[in-house]
Amino acid sequence: MRINNIWISLLEVKPLKDSEYFGKFKRAYVNGLIYANSKSEAEKQFNTTLNKMGFKLISVEDTEKYANRIKKYTVAKEIQDIYLKIKENKQPQFGIFHTSLIKKNKI
Fold this sequence. Notes:
Layout: E1 5-15, E2 27-36, H1 39-52, E3 55-65, H2 66-72, H3 77-89, E4 93-94, E5 98-100
């Protein structure tokens, strides 16, 4: 079966305990693009891919076809760049991980 659609989502993740990122930040938000045949398939593939990268997927927001997103909104250059990468190599792509730092000294 041929997959023609690229999907985009805002993903909330946290590092897995055995990940190199564990202890460096608590949570992060990142935009992801992935090839899939449906919204649910895209979200499952994001979960699988992020897990392999050392992250637990906490939440998924605004999953839609990339083609629909660009009809409604102007997307940031970062998103346009990762779109070009996924078109080229057909692999899931992620933007910048925007982290919330762990506070070392709680008052």
